[in-house]
User: What shape does this take?
Amino acid sequence: MRYYINPEGDARVKNLQRPAPDTHQASPGLYEALLTLQTVDECQRFLEDLCTPAELEALLDRWSVVGHLEAGVPYRQIHDLTGVSVTTIGRVARFLTHGSGGYQLALQRLKPKQGRKST
Assistant: This one.
């Protein structure tokens, strides 16, 4: 049985689900922390501390398929190349086209950096 202390301080309320966190209030601090990181190594260290190994693997899996999707590679071939499930690939594809634009923004900003590496 789970106990939850409600806002009124009553600790005897039973079997209540913990209220979902207000991500709009909690998230600016996390986003600001991410923006303070200046190198790939700093970002890696932060994410390793923040995420469980499974969570970090899920993030890495999702990002590993973005370039393939942008290049028009079929889902099954992406799976064969990366080992990422077709379900996850489909989820990434959906957010790539109908998400908040975060994948697209990151891709656009990385393209100039990738171009400089090859020259």
